[in-house]
Design goal:
The chain is an alpha/beta fold. The chain contains 12 helices and 11 strands. 42% of the residues lie in helices and 17% in strands. The strands form 2 sheets. It has an 8-stranded parallel β-barrel, surrounded by 8 helices. It has a two-stranded antiparallel sheet with strand order 5-6.
């Protein structure tokens, strides 16, 4: 059966209020105290002009690569990770060195969430052609994992070149930190080849059982691995139906990407404590191995709001799991 250790949280370097490093430390320390498995950060370069970000009164985006080691230093047991880095934005050696160092200084608590990215500004800000991100991503994963596991690496790719170069220190975790591949069905092959899991956007029970799990099993047999399914979604523990309805608009905005056909009640962990626990159990039974949940509606609510929801979740939903 699932437990609090099967849930991670996502925290944000942006929001309707200007992001604060002190508040971010506070929420991650609370997550550690409450028994969540990890805290993850997005690594976008700029604020997107689309989706819910249009409603933010500020464009501040703190650099998650700066924040992560500070969070590691402020905690002792919770894993620290990214949801997700966008490998094409930096050279593979720079990623390998940074992430290996972070694994060392955190005492082996790093989770490397990696995704190809979806908004144009992340790529134009550093002069990378977004249309090539799939090929860039695959070469990055190959080069980075080799740098973590081989004494000296020679790599001749279409986009990246390495010539007989070492990388030290190696990561604490062996053979390297867990890689969580964020993406859709097209990324199953990548997850099977390099990752511990694929992190999918709010799959329901039918999709998990009939699409994701068979696809991961087939790709795992091909590569001799055992890739798992993790689900990213939003959570809101409500006191009543009226309370849940009052947050319906924010849930809709957070999950729907302006698509009114998506029903947030079907793709989020929301409602009474009993309903939230039942949703988690049903998804777990359908094959979901881990849950990355967020309590801040992707920045539409404050850090204080999220912390209150986390405590409520741990106190009222956790025991029901």
């Amino acid at each position: 059966m699932p437990s609090m250790a099967d849930l991670s949280i996502m925290v944000f370097p942006w929001g309707v209020e200007r992001p604060s490093m002190d508040e971010t430390i506070e929420i991650v320390k609370l997550a550690e105290d409450l028994g969540f498995y990890s805290a993850t950060l997005p690594t976008h370069m700029t604020m997107s002009p689309d989706w819910l970000f249009r409603t933010f009164p500020n464009d501040d985006v703190l650099d998650a690569l700066v924040m992560a080691p500070i969070l590691a230093a402020a905690t002792s047991t919770i894993r620290i990770g990214f949801n997700a880095i966008l490998p094409p934005l930096l050279p593979p050696y720079q990623w390998a060195k940074y992430l290996s160092t972070l694994d060392v200084v955190s005492g082996g608590r790093l989770i490397v969430g990696a995704a190809m990215g979806w908004w144009e500004e992340d790529f134009t800000s550093v002069g990378v052609d977004r249309r090539k991100r799939g090929r860039l991503f695959d070469e990055q994963l190959e080069a980075i994992t080799r740098l973590w596991t081989e004494e000296r690496v020679t790599f001749h790719g279409e986009h990246y070149q390495l010539e007989d170069i070492p990388l030290e220190p190696k990561p604490v975790q062996k053979p390297y930190p867990p890689i969580w591949i964020g993406g859709g069905v097209k990324s199953i092959e990548r997850a099977a080849r390099y990752g511990e899991c694929i992190l999918a956007f709010w799959p329901d029970e039918g999709q998990s059982r009939d699409l994701w799990i068979p696809g991961l099993a087939e790709a795992g047999r091909k590569h001799g691995t055992d890739p798992k399914l993790a689900a990213f979604t939003f959570a809101y523990v409500a006191d009543s139906q009226a309370d849940l309805d009052s947050y319906g608009d924010k849930l809709q905005t957070a999950v729907a990407f302006d698509d009114p056909t998506i029903d947030p009640k079907r793709v989020t962990i929301s409602g009474s404590p009993e309903a939230c626990a039942e949703r988690i159990r049903a998804l777990h039974d359908a094959g979901v191995w881990h849950f990355v949940v967020e309590f801040q509606f992707h920045g539409l609510e404050t850090v204080g709001f999220a912390m209150g929801q986390m405590e409520k979740f741990a106190e009222e939903v956790g025991p029901l799991l």
